[in-house]
Amino acid sequence: MDKLITIDHLTKIYTLGDFEIHALKGINLSIQRGEFLAIMGPSGSGKSTLMNILGCLDRPTKGSYLLEGEDISTLDRNSLARIRNRRIGFVFQTFNLLSRTTALENVELPMLYNSTTTKNRVEKSLRALSMVGLEGRKNHYPNQLSGGQQQRVAIARSLVNDPSIILADEPTGNLDTRTSIEVMEIFQNLNERGITIILITHEKDIAAFAKRNITFRDGRIVKDEIVDSPQIAKDALLSLPPVEDEEIV
Amino acid sequence: MRYLQIIKIAYRALKRNKMRSSLTMLGIIIGVGAVIAMVGIGQGAKKMVDDQIASLGDNLLTIFPGSHTAGGVHGGAGTVTRLTDDDAKAITQSCPAVSRISPVVRTNAQVVAGNLNWGTSIEGYSTDFVYIRSWNVSSGTFFTEQDVRGGTKVCVLGKTVVDNIFPDQDPVGQIIRIKKLPFRVIGVMSSKGQNAFGRDQDDIILVPYTTAQKKLMGVTFVNSIIASAKDRTEIDLASDQITQLLRQRHKIPAGEADDFTVRSQLDIASVAGSTSSVMTILLAAIASVSLIVGGIGIMNIMLVSVTERTREIGIRMAVGAKGNDILTQFLVESIVLSLFGGIIGILLGVISSKIISGVLNWPIYISPPAVALAFFFSGFVGIFFGFYPARKASLLDPIEALRYE
Questions:
Q1: Would you state the pLDDT for residue B196?
Q2: Which of B243, B313, B324, B338 is the most buried (most CB within 10 A)?
Q3: Does residue A195 contact residue A166 with C-beta atoms inside 8 Å?
Q4: B313–chain A Cβ distance below 8 A for any pair
């Protein structure tokens, strides 16, 4: 396995007036390609800060962050934007789809910011939508989709540029148990295809679907363990009681 | 391809807020419409003045005597400070660039026909008058060379005079009295209407200048001389030749000022033209204020839009939009707004100009350069007032923007 992410003594300090908030206090972490990592920890433990830095949305105060061997901590805004576009896919708790924009157009969004041709763009978007099982909903607007479907559109958007990592920040936070597990099933499928997945979650049972769990507290990693036998989402779905109410179409 | 995409995104964003977009555009529409209409009115007035000056006659030159003040200073017995008939004759003989010439003798008098009377301007000319002023009789005849030589008491009436002293009958062949002298009416001039300065050109009686000098006024000088240059290109040459000749005839030593003025049609046209140009600029300047107000409206709405769509900006940045992409998107939105508004404003301006010209009977001239200028100016307003909000959007921090509620 080759190294995807190497973090060395990563520190992030926010300054609020006279205060200094040490959000990350010298983190060391390395992540291999193809891992499925869950980051846990209470609010304010620094996991979101780490996520922002891993996602190239923010830069560390000190320390280095190598993504596929490239040092990210020294890059400018435009280079970071290019890396986000090419190598990173984001999935958010609140889905963050553009309203009044169809599912297909939402998935196309990242390709508007690189040189993908129109023909390729539509083709790749349709392929990504079918990977999350929503090819039939391509012309639906977000307000015509259920929460689970919206999150699946967001996942399709995150993987459309063939990224090295998908970063998911509490992707199941706004979903019920069944849809949460459905979303985890999609992540497990993607992970089997070799995509590295890093997800932040509060919930232990969601973290149980990942292959490795990291726990944060007060800006430090307090636990880093390999899950011996991760739960299989497909099996978990079967053990749930049957669906009672109809899915919103 | 990319630009088409950006324009599409902008168009879609504007369509999402139809009401707001159209109200924002209204500012630009009114601004551009006002500029087009005002410039149309101004240029219409200019064109009207130009046309009327051209109707005074082609290649017209007018020679005025020097001012009386100058005459007073140099005055003395025998000093020639006024133009004479001989000056006119000399010009005919020795100025090759001049084709036609007529002395002008002017007085005012009360004319009487039957029991009607009318105070009007009596003007004496030579037979060349009809060519120089390109103005002909509508009935009867103009006076002849013999009439001029003999100083016969014949006259040609202007339309206004006919209306006042011969309201119901054909004046040709009738006798009228000018300063108690009987004159035979031999013709009526065609109607010319008002001139550029608002004077009724038809309120006139034309007589041979010799008649006016000897019979009506008892003078030997002439008020002025009008002449035609051979060709439009020879107006300046003719003017120079006349100046040379008259200086020589009036014995003006080198270095001394002329005791006469030669003015060409072009001079008058340029003075009148510059007057209406000033008016056009003034009207356009007033109208531009509303265009600027429209631009501020765009800036206001774009700022609101940027705040409202902070989250969208965050999402776009997260998936890889660079600051420049966001800047372009918002800039294109405001340019699309203002150009669209500009196009509608141009249409509105043209339509309202037509209505104004129809209702007020005021000439309107919509010049293509003014339309093009209004179009590009509205685009410029979009860029100018859209830049600040767009830049603000492009500098947003993606993390903050994503967290924005």
A1: 59
A2: B338
A3: yes
A4: no
Looking from the CA of B150 toward its CB, the CA atoms found within 13 Å total 8
Chain B residues lying within 8 Å of A114, measured CB to CB: 320
Which amino acid type is present at position A232?
I
Q: What share of chain A is helix, strand, coil (3-state, %, to 5)?
A: 35, 25, 35
ipTM of this complex prediction, to 2 decimal places:
0.92
Closest chain B CA to residue A95: B315
Mutation target for B interface from A112, A115, A161, A169: give the one with most B CBs within 10 A: A112
State which amino acid sits at residue B41: I
Non-local CB neighbours of B57 within 8 Å, separated by 6+ positions: B132, B133, B134, B135, B226, B228, B265
Residue A114 β-bridge partners:
none
Q: What's the half-sphere exposure (Cβ side, CA atoms, 13 Å) at A92? A: 16
| Contact residues, B window 319-378, toward A, CB-based 8 Å cutoff | 319-325
- Chain B residues in contact with A163 by the CB 8 A cut-off are none
Distance (Å, whole) CA A146 – CA A126: 19
Provide the pLDDT for residue A244: 61
* pLDDT given at position B370: 82
Largest CA distance in chain A: 55
List the single residue in B with minimal CA-CA distance to A99: B312
Query: B18 — contact with chain A (CB < 8 Å)?
Result: no
Length of chain A equals 249
Q: Copy the structure tokens of residue A28.
A: 């060391």
Restricting to B residues 143-172, those with a Cβ less than 8 Å away from any Cβ of A are none
* Residue B376 to chain A, least CA–CA distance (Å): 29
Q: Which is nearest to B398 in space by CA: B310, B324, B307, B332?
A: B310
Query: Distance (Å, rounded) from C-alpha B163 to C-alpha B157?
Result: 10
What domains appear along chain A, each with residue ranges and CATH number? 3-239 (3.40.50.300)
Using the beta-carbon criterion (under 8 Å), do A84 and B320 form an inter-chain contact? yes
What φ, ψ does residue B84 adopt, rounded to 5°? Answer: -125, 170
Chain A residues contacting B, CB < 8 Å? 52, 55, 57-58, 77-78, 81-82, 84-86, 90, 92, 96-98, 100-101, 109-110, 112-114, 117-118, 157, 161
Chain A contact for B79 (CB, 8 A cutoff): no
| Stronger pLDDT, A152 or B294, i.e. the higher one | A152
| Test mutation, A59, A80, A96, A153, chain B, max B CBs within 10 A | A96
Please report residues of B whose CB lies closer than 8 A to that of A98.
Answer: 312, 315
Give the mean model confidence (pLDDT) for residues B243-262: 84
Report which of B70, B142, B67, B66 is spatially closest to residue B102, judged by C-alpha positions.
Answer: B142
Q: Where are the domains of chain B?
A: 2-52+270-403, 67-258
In degrees, rounded to 5, the angle at the alpha carbon of residue B203 between the alpha carbons of residues B200 and B207 is 135
Cut 0.80: pTM above it: no
Q: Looking at this protein, which amino acid is placed at residue A206?
A: I
Question: Please, what sign has the CA dihedral across residues A142, A147, A151, A152?
Answer: negative
Give backbone dihedrals phi and psi of A111, rounded to 5 degrees, phi first: -80, -10
Paired with A213 in beta bridges are A38, A225
For residue B79, the SS3 value is coil
